[in-house]
Amino acid sequence: MGRIRVLSDVVANKIAAGEVVERPASVVKELLENSLDAGSTRIRVETEAGGRRLIRITDDGCGMLRDDALLAFERHATSKLSDVKDLLSIATLGFRGEALPSIGSVSRLTLETRSQDESTGTRVEIQGGKLQRCDEAALAGGTIITVRDLFFNVPARKKFLRSDQTELAHIASLVTHYALAYPGIGFELTHEGRELIAVTPVAELRERVFQVFGTNVLTDLIDLGDRTREVPADEESEPNHFTLRGFISPPHIQKLNRNSIYLFVNGRLIKDRLLLHALHAGYQNLMPPSAYPFALLFLNCSYEEVDVNVHPSKTEVRFRRGTFVHDFVRDAVRDVLLAGRPVSNAPLGSFTSPPQVGARLPYSEFTQQIDNVPVPHEVSEAARMEALGGPMAGGEAMGESGGLVPDFRLYQPQQPLAQRLDFSTGAPLAVEPHLPASASGKLRRVPDTHGPLPPGLAVDPQMSLDVLRDLQPMGQLHDSFIIAAGRDGLWVIDQHVAHERILFEQVLRQMAAGEVERQQLLIPLVLELTPAQATEFDRIREELEQSGFDAEPYGPRAVAIKAAPAALGTAEVERVVLEILEISEKELRQSSFEELRNEMAATIACRAAIKINMRLDATRMEWMLRTLAECEFPMSCPHGRPIALRYATREILRGFHRI
Length: 659
Ligand code: ADP
Ligand code: MG
What we know:
Blueprint: H1 9-20, H2 24-37, E1 42-48, E2 54-59, H3 66-71, H4 99-105, E3 108-114, E4 121-127, E5 130-137, E6 142-148, H5 155-160, H6 164-181, E7 186-191, E8 194-199, H7 205-213, H8 215-220, E9 222-223, E10 227-231, E11 240-248, E12 261-265, E13 268-269, H9 273-282, E14 295-300, E15 306-307, E16 318-319, H10 322-339, H11 377-388, H12 396-401, H13 408-411, H14 417-421, H15 437-440, H16 465-469, E17 472-477, E18 481-486, E19 489-494, H17 495-512, E20 518-528, H18 531-546, E21 550-553, E22 558-565, H19 570-586, H20 593-608, H21 618-629, E23 644-648, H22 649-655
Parallel strand pairs: 1-7, 12-14
Antiparallel strand pairs: 1-2, 2-6, 3-4, 3-6, 4-5, 7-8, 9-11, 10-11, 11-14, 12-13, 15-16, 17-18, 18-19, 19-23, 20-22, 21-22
Helix pairs in contact: 1-4, 2-6, 6-7, 6-18, 9-10, 17-20, 17-21, 18-19, 19-20
This protein binds adenosine-5'-diphosphate and magnesium ion.
């Protein structure tokens, strides 16, 4: 007998389930998509134990005919495609006919459905892929699918699942996404009877954004309007057009992760690198590359422009004309961002409200000063000559000859200062003077003719922590960096980052000892949360308590904060809590509480630390350096940025040709 055998359907379905059904949220996704494809106007999702014990989706869609109800569990049974040609233009969310059989093979599933065309309905029960029963039943029109004990027969998968709260957060985020994509449809999500999402059908996307996120978010967002771009015909297809609508955040709203980016192509939720990149490119130079905006983008195009059959979970797409799509999205984003501010006005100069994530935004607070950075000499000179109609304005030769051509791209004020001055590399300020020197033989090094080195001087290029202890502060540069003399050279210390490190270690110590100093707020601060945030809040409530917050649920989707760590100003409390919730969302997949605690301490420290652009007197500089020296890791901030740069004595000596 040969060795190759055709797999039984039960096995094949279980394998497919491995791709389609990763976790409870994937079941919700597939079932939601089916309900949407069925033309439902109201969809209700009930869950228990993070979806592993129960997921039930009830819709008022077209339902299934009795014969179809059974057929739906056959592999590759779908009402949505009949022929290969259809694959080229997929208008429905589902099309592979894999979801129901896959889910049925790894759970105990009940389907109850009645088509509007039949007088009675059908109830089908499947367990681990095996049909248990199929009965006629009196049912209302529409479909109810109940999935119990997900992965009961796949212990390996079950083990891989995270806590109920984590799985629930994934589900909540998914339902939120779909609620945003389909404002005309009502959605409801409950967990063990508790309502997490309940949105009624509305006419406008804007209203749905308000229902989901509340006023705060909505007022900040910029409406993209309806944008269209024509694609010219090519040998394969007719001329076509793409449309884009949605909302994006202004550059000063900066997120730590991609969780606030919602991308939809033809109503399908997707994760797509090309679109993410296009979005980022739209924000280029307006936002640091490490930060993320809030974005809700709906791209629509004719179905043959996009291939959705790239991955079993249908979250990836491939565009036929990728570059075109990329540039369209980038330009649309860029246009609205710039439209808000006159071009002559340096965009960065208008970052008046502080960015949300200071620690990750090196020097962005510096941006007010950018206008004052003098334009490099050659440029102003060339520009002046040009204005005067002088020799430099002569035209043709200029462009080619380079050198003095004013390349304003290089000096545009949008370019972050950090990039221009290359501070961000974290390399010690080892400025190697460019000597035309020895090679050309014009200069000779004469180290010993200048007298001996001062006694006790360290010329060791290794940064030594000892030196930190006896640094002598000499003053501040730009009210932002402490300049200090050390035995081994000249030190430049970023005052914000240094203070952040000091506070970070202090908060961590207090957290470990369970004695974070707290202050009562005069009036409790009530925060409205998104469903995903509310779930996160439940999950990390104890940790929040440990880190000095006293917060309680306040209605189903809000929390009241009564006390906060004393280090924080009252004005910072809201932002810090939201940032912490965001961090913990980001850590959903690999959240260890220790990491979370570190991140919390880092967030508090960052918010509480003194900022740059702040004058410090000698005593405070002195205090800062002493306290920093006592830190366990005084050389980098909790996020890994350097705290101090050093211009080593060795380099100084070299610069003066003393060695
Ligand atoms: P696909 O969505 O890829 O077609 P599924 O396995 O998800 O495959 O579903 C199989 C078929 O069952 C669908 O094509 C559709 O005809 C039917 N179906 C599934 N869910 C529903 C629902 N909620 N309402 C009506 N029909 C449904
Ligand atoms: Mg489907």
